[in-house]
Amino acid sequence: MSETLQTTHVAASDADLLHQTAIAVRAAGSALRERFGEVVRYQTREELMRALAANDDTALDILRPRLTRLRPDAGWVEDELDGGALPPGEWWVVDPAEGNVNHLHALPEWAVTATLVRENQPVLTVVHLPLTGETYTALTGAGAHLDGRPLHVSQTADLALSIVATSQARPDEDEKVVRRVGSSITAMLFDALVVRTAVPATLHLTNVAAGRIDAFWQFAGARADLLPGALLVTEAGGRISDAEGRPWTPQSESFLAAAPGVHAEAVATLSR
């Protein structure tokens, strides 16, 4: 009896935490929306990096104190480009401006994300798109939702009828990874109906969770890129693995999220 009550209490606590996290993420999104709209061309990479950092700082000034108050003992991942496993305990994995370069170029594909990771497993996540007002949420065991409406992955069972997506390698990525990205896109162009290529990864994964596209893959990548979407897709009924079909962890060198009906075909295509 006590074990059941404890589980219920923890679930209720996490559900309230998800709600409070969404409030914080939306507030950060509002601040970034106020900075959006003017295209500025930067003359040097240093200028561009300073502008990216200014966006990050604007959102972090809101997110960090609010999320810290919600979970004072949780660690904080400083760099959204980090990868690999986290130390034991709870950690906030936050991307304050996912798709930051799009924001600076007045493109609409950007978001604010916050994910709570407990013992290296994502527990809850919030992905907010300030320009549309959409908020995607997922809580382990409680499903994935868009503004409160349940999400479900596609029922497509044929890769030849599928829309699939990937994002490009990061700047200064290892040449082998860049070439692997290119060859995987070529392979998918032969096997899938449509191939979409753009950044950021998280927005492709929200589309997989919502059933709009059927698969997303990426080589390398960071925790903040993949953990929010991994939880959304899993809770929406999708399958997560590496590109070879093995269980995915933040240490994996590749990532695949797909509707169950096309997962095996996608693995076969990416393994060629």
From TrEMBL:
It holds the Pfam family Inositol_P. It comes from the Bacteria. This is 3'(2'),5'-bisphosphate nucleotidase CysQ. The lineage of its organism: Bacteria, Bacillati, Actinomycetota, Actinomycetes, Kitasatosporales.
